């Protein structure tokens, strides 16, 4: 499959709309959930001819996926090859299934992504994310690299000593990694006299954490990594529900959409499209998915978009990094914040290695914000941090010092695939 991203804007739109119409017909025939949705809302899919028509279809939510999970399945269980779950960042993990077609589509999606950053057959790539624990990303990377013809080193997550042993043994030129883990690899290399600055690694494909701001400049985390290790960092954005990734090209001016694989909308609070450069919620419809396709799924992620042609020649729309999540909005002392604003200060001021952000309600329903830090932090570091919060955010969260063991227990709850950096207690019992 060749990407259509270098075609004209008009041809891309025509092909994408055709794929969307095919998916509508497929859902009408095979999806118990969407059959009922169409019927309950008196929607005749043959009348969906424009973007305005499409907006007549109600949004699908994460709660729909949790409450009616089996109703989204469009194939027999005998066809299912792989079962995965979402990471559960904002709630309980949701089940997803993939058949042979969907695994092939997943591989093609990642092949295109790796090709977009300049990766070639014969390059060596070390995957430092897990391929187990029902995690779709590690498997997707493996399938995409295999399709590209790259050499693959599967180290899995954690274990900096194994990462460096593998780098020295096999000499990969690319890593796939969570950005904050790159900092841990650097710390380990410095502590163990590893000449990491002259290693074979020239670039990292980063997942799970934003590297750039709304203007595509490196944020505090991205700057910290590149100041310490002169490698090129590529941002990606993906989720289990989308079964598609948005990836930067070599010009680093936004994450490219693969228009034949996903249909995207960026909407305001009223459900209307935002203008170019404005922030809205990303709503997606998966294309060419057979097992559990989604139509107008509200991701909860806030992004902006760019529509002009990229320097790389691709005409596909580009998304900004995720700027926040609707459910993670904090209003603290009159200031609107998202966790990433706080993380940028924590990483950028004194490089706090261990923290968790906590938000809860006070007795009158206002947001209370605190940062839990390991009690090994110095008074001087706390003073620098407070000044950083005041300068960057105009507010200073409460700083709570706790035992490092207690902090790690909060950050790594049983069953979680990712460290918890933001603990929202506003909707739970305290």
Rg from C-alpha positions?
22 Å
Just name the CATH architecture of the largest domain.
Answer: 3-Layer(aba) Sandwich
Number of helices: 12
- End-to-end Cα distance, whole Å, is 51 Å
Instruction: State the CATH topology of the largest domain.
Output: Rossmann fold
Can you list the strand order of the major beta sheet? 4-3-5-6-7-8-9-14-13
Estimate the global geometry from the Cα principal axes.
Answer: globular
The tally of strands reads: 21
User: What is the domain tally?
Assistant: 2
Give the CATH class of the largest domain.
Answer: Alpha Beta
CATH superfamily of the largest domain: ANL, N-terminal domain
User: Which structural class do the helices and strands define?
Assistant: alpha/beta
Task: Please provide a written account of the structure.
The chain has 430 residues and is of the alpha/beta class. It is built from twelve helices and 21 strands. The strands form five sheets. It has a nine-stranded mixed beta sheet with strand order 4-3-5-6-7-8-9-14-13, with helices on both faces. The longest helix is centred in the first third of the chain and has 22 residues, at 9-30. The protein starts with 8 loop residues before the first helix and ends in a 6-residue tail after the last strand.
Characteristics:
single chain, 430 residues, alpha/beta, Rossmann fold, GMP Synthetase, Chain A, domain 3, 2 domains, nine-stranded mixed β-sheet, four-stranded antiparallel β-sheet, 12 helices, 22% strand
